[in-house]
Amino acid sequence: MTSEPSSNPHDESSDDGPAVGSGDGAAVAPEDGAVADLSDEAVSRANGRFYEALERADLDEMHAVWVHTDDAICAHPGRTPLIGWDEVWASWEAILGSGGNPQIILTEERIDRRGTVAWVTAIENMISGENTGAAAALNIFQHDGEAWRIVVHHAAPVLA
Q1: Contact 133, 126 (CB under 8 A)
Q2: By the 8 A CB rule, do 114 and 102 touch?
Q3: pLDDT for residue 158 is more than 50
Q4: Which one, of 34, 42, 39, lies nearest residue 23 by Cα?
Q5: What is the spatial distance between Cα 34 and Cα 4, in angstroms, rounded to a whole number?
């Protein structure tokens, strides 16, 4: 998965101060006492893990990047939303098990974050053999004290 750089109004490295909703910008204390990374960069890495799992058809990694609760929601392009972890997971098992996973190039990626909730919008540019397509994506993450995990993934076809 490749991604174009984005301009992010909440980038903590800017001179505008810390990201909105981030307190001092980067940390909560998980149960083990370590400092959790709540930065935009950590959200971007979690988002990248999701797309890498999709491209590689990696069920273990896909399983790791999601919350495993009734809050999980996934709306694949052209499909009705799946509600709850069991439905979401069954869809990923079917999709990743079918083979033929596309290369995905993310463009127009934007990260917004408020405390332990973040959302990423992007265009998923997909290449699969001779076929290409694009989808507008929204991924909503929640930090669970250990890692950023996807709560919601929604992708809708971009019509030319």
Answers
A1: yes
A2: no
A3: yes
A4: 39
A5: 31
Give me 148's structure tokens. Answer: 């950023």
Q: What is the dotted CATH code of the domain comprising 35-157?
A: 3.10.450.50
* Side chain identity, residue 150: I
> Above 90 in pLDDT, residue 146?
yes
CB 93 within 8 Å of CB 124: no
Q: What is the pLDDT of residues 47-65, one digit of tens each?
A: 999 999 999 999 999 999 9
3-state helix, strand, coil in the chain (%, to 5): 25, 35, 40
Q: Find where tokens 């127009």 sit.
A: 108
For the stretch 7-55, pLDDT in tens is: 444 343 333 333 333 333 445 455 555 678 999 999 999 999 999 999 9
CA separation for the pair 51, 101 (Å, rounded): 11
Residue among 109, 10, 90 nearest 51 (CA): 109
User: Domain extents for the chain?
Assistant: 35-157
Q: How far apart are the first and last CA of the chain?
A: 23
Q: Cα angle at 55 between 54 and 59, to 5 degrees?
A: 45
